[in-house]
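Appendix B. One record, verbatim.
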Amino acid sequence: MLDMSLTSIIILTLNNLEKTKKCLVSIRKYTHQPYELIIVDNGSTDGTIQYLKKFPDIKLICNKQNKGFAGGCNQGMKLAKGEQLLLLNNDTIVSHHWLDNLLKALYISPRIGMVGPLTNSTNPPGVKKPANVNYSNEVQYHQLASRFNQHDPSKWKAMQVLYGFCLLLKREVFDKIGLMDERFTIGTAEDNDFCLRATRAGYTLLLAGDTLVHHDGHASFKRNQINLRRIQSENIQKFVQKWGIQPSALVRSQLDFIPDGLLVKGIGPAIYYIDRQLRRPIKDQETLNYLKFKQSDAISVPNPKIQRYHVGEKIDKEVFSKKILNNFLVKSNDRDEIFLIQDDCKRLIKDKISLNYYGFLPQKIITLPNQIIESIQSGKNLESKIEFETQLPNLKVFKCFNTFYLSMNNSFYPIKKVSLEKLKLAPNKAIKISPQILYKFPIGKEIVYSWR
């Protein structure tokens, strides 16, 4: 029977008794939420098993041979009774507020599936160790953690991959994606695989940058003289065989593409509208005027980048009337209702408050015959506040704490101010949102534009 308030902490051991002792002492001292301890020993010969048997509250599984990280974690997760499962390496030391912070991040939204902390050793690609994380012994670590581990959602970051040295996940995620894949023997790549399966199941992964957990890193490999480089190479090959991509492809943290709904130009006179990732030529100045664009609205993009996009059908007034493009504002010639065209549907903008809230400009509204408006399928009304929204309008700029996001495909994409300016999108008009709103939607990779 599950315990809704319980976190099942699952630790693997293979020798390294002294590190295990330190890990357990820190858990008992600094964990104030309900938890159970499950330890899976993978064949220790240094007295680890005899030591662990002294504690009646530890659920102990003793393997005669090394079942690897995935195999051992699976044994522990099968035994777990908690509503949260936490995979923790035995060469870690936890400190002040560690589990409280991780749980707050995990439950900020139903969409969040897994959470991990920062560490002194190896953090996920794209995440730098904070400059103030410096210590030389355990006492200094705890002193630092008492200041560092303060609840601060502004330090959270959506990730594509989290590392398995300290990985907290909801029971529902485990129920949905299943056990770790034991083809990844001993260790490495199984956490990449686990994270990929979670994101493909629709969950967001979150790095809790307000939580620091000490990690020695690869202690079991070093202590037990396991060839880490060979194991990594073999498991990477298995990952490629399974998914058709390198694990490193998961952590490429940047995208470089032109979003749908923007006007672009290269060196020549042609101006294009990006529609479904096709560049569709604007026929002439008359069409540009009809679409409520000015020449200066077009983003200057190097020709090699423009040429990545296949050329679509030329746009003129007649073509637009037959198939109204997404991201345009329209109204009929005999009614005051204003609609946003999104995903080939018309979304009613209910009032001027909604129009102003999202930064829609009245001068951008195109008036069309009523029969054309009536022929477009109706979608969800656009709400007056993002708090009530279940479908994000595209190409709107949002800001949560100090990070900008661009809305596309019902997701938020991190984007820096300089990139927004390249897209001629105004960062100073960004709509401010809370973490609760941000993590209600999927978080994409950061969009970066490097051209000059």
